Amino acid sequence: MSDFKQKCEKFSEILNRYNKIHSLTNYKNFDEQINDSIAILDMIEISANKAIDIGSGAGFPALFLAMKLNECEWHLYEPNHKKSAFLTLAKIELGLENVIIHSTKLQDGDKFIVDLITSRALMKVADLVKISRGFFNENTKFLLYKGSSVTEELNGFNAKVLNKHNRNYILMDKVC
């Protein structure tokens, strides 16, 4: 069994245990969410030294991208303390040394430039770009996990839309 698969099984155990007490997510099949988190890696090559995930919630997609892109330093921003506590627990139990949890909103954090910014269905694209100011430059890429009605949000952005099942993966660059 691969290290990734073992970590995914352990993650599911941790989330099930945590969910019973804290009701973190309504997802019943974590495998679907894990596959959704990493499906983009079969479509495009992603390389980054430093990345942030905005609104990390229960860890989809950031924890799984961090497992796959383990040479990258991942900063997960989650202001909900129940969720950030879960992320910290998962990080420790899974041994994800490349993950740093920030229990704050992105816009309240210290600014630093990253290579990649990810987020899953958190807010409209323009709003997400706005709160990300100070974290990106002309070389930073955005990878956004969106639903079916995203096209009107992309006006004015250099965006590529990749689709798998009901998920639109939005890859944007040159946002500056």
* SSE sequence, one letter per element: HHEHEHEEHEEE
The profile of the biggest β sheet is:
7 strands, mixed
Supply the CATH architecture. 3-Layer(aba) Sandwich
Strand content: 15-25%
Q: In oligomeric terms, what are we looking at?
A: single chain
DSSP helix count? 5
List the strand order in the largest sheet.
3-2-1-4-5-7-6
Total DSSP E strands: 7
Average residue-wise pLDDT: 93
- Decide which structural class fits the backbone: alpha/beta
Distance between the termini: 43 Å
CATH class: Alpha Beta
- What is the CATH H-level superfamily? Vaccinia Virus protein VP39
The CATH topology label is Rossmann fold
EC number: 2.1.1.-
Keywords: Cytoplasm, Methyltransferase, rRNA processing, S-adenosyl-L-methionine, Transferase
Function: Specifically methylates the N7 position of a guanine in 16S rRNA.
Binding site for S-adenosyl-L-methionine: 55, 60, 106-107, 120
Q: Would you write up a description of this structure?
A:
With 176 residues, the protein is of the alpha/beta class. The chain has one domain (3-172): Vaccinia Virus protein VP39 (Rossmann fold), CATH 3.40.50.150. The chain has 5 helices and 7 strands; from the N terminus they run ααβαβαββαβββ. It has helices at 3-22, 30-38, 62-68, 81-94, 125-131, and strands spanning 50-54, 73-77, 99-102, 116-120, 141-146, 159-164, 167-172. The chain has a 7-stranded mixed sheet, covered by helices on one side. Strand 6 and strand 7 form a beta hairpin. Helix 1 packs antiparallel against helix 4 (81-94). The radius of gyration is 15 Å and the shape is globular. 35% of the residues are buried.
